[in-house]
Amino acid sequence: MAMLSFSSRPVASSFLLRPNRRPHRLLLPTKPLATASASALTPPVPRDGPIATGSPDADATPLFLRPATHPVPASALAAFRRRAAALVPPSAPHLHRHLRWLLADASTTSSDSDPALLRAPLDHIEALWLGHVRARRPFQYVVGNEHWRDMVVAVREGVLIPRPETEAVVDMVKGVEGFGGGWWADLGTGSGAIAVAVARELGDGGRVFATDVSDVAVEVARLNVERYGVQDKVEIRQGSWFEPLQDVKGKLMGVISNPPYIPTEDLPGLQPEVGWHEPKLALDGGRDGLEHLLHLCEGLSSALKSGGFFVF
Ligand SMILES: C[S@@+](CC[C@H](N)C(=O)[O-])C[C@H]1O[C@@H](n2cnc3c(N)ncnc32)[C@H](O)[C@@H]1O
Fold first, then answer.
1. Which residue's CA is the nearest one to ligand 1's atom 24?
2. Which domains, ranges and CATH numbers included, belong to the chain?
């Protein structure tokens, strides 16, 4: 993670002079979600392989936001809990934790009621669980959200799960003099997590232009913007990098971006949760991983106002 300030110096120079230096990244693939034992439990299966469970939800609303309209006898729920736990060895405590969280998201708070009221049919919840433990579908896609900073960010297949590493970006930009009234761009906004968090800190006149080329990202970012009520501060625009920002050229106090940076040849080696399930569009940084970052550097000089910042 880095923040650079640019005045009259050509903005791309600090990168282009050191083309072989891999920049310190905002985001790395998630720390392994699967322990060695969980890996043993679920040997890698090619993404296009036989696993049928855990396919994307038809309902993209995060589980905890769905109405609890599915009554189920407490005994059936208890039986599911036992079946689900039996799939996971004690040596994979994170999966046992995920089971508790899944049930917490899926049920109303009065969990000892009989019948219990669930936010999805029990067989659907079971399929979600199988998708997680067998198909290595990330837990965040299973429940449709990720806890990030003080927010609960909606996510789904097709949009990158925001990582803890990016949380610090918001504190970084908050420290910039005049931050609150500035215009910022979050390029490749994904779920919109950064844009929303920045917008919540802005004062009068402050604005975030959040761009992404992906349809799903744009849709999910809009949902998160609405959920946090920052429509007046965040403008989502669809398109490639600076393309949708022609009208604010030279007016931005800062550009924030966490572009895809994994070298194409490294993609097959990613842990299954990332490589099989997260969008290639959000991961693939081209031959050396720097393709998008260098493109962004080239556009900065015309996008930023003098003294503007690039946070990446
Ligand atoms: C590593 S993800 C970062 C997502 C989000 N900013 C975050 O930190 O969670 C990179 C994002 O860049 C987007 N992206 C890829 N190519 C793009 C392009 N040509 N123009 C705009 N966005 C692009 C992807 O769709 C993805 O959302």
1. 282
2. 3-32+158-311 (3.40.50.150), 36-137 (no CATH)
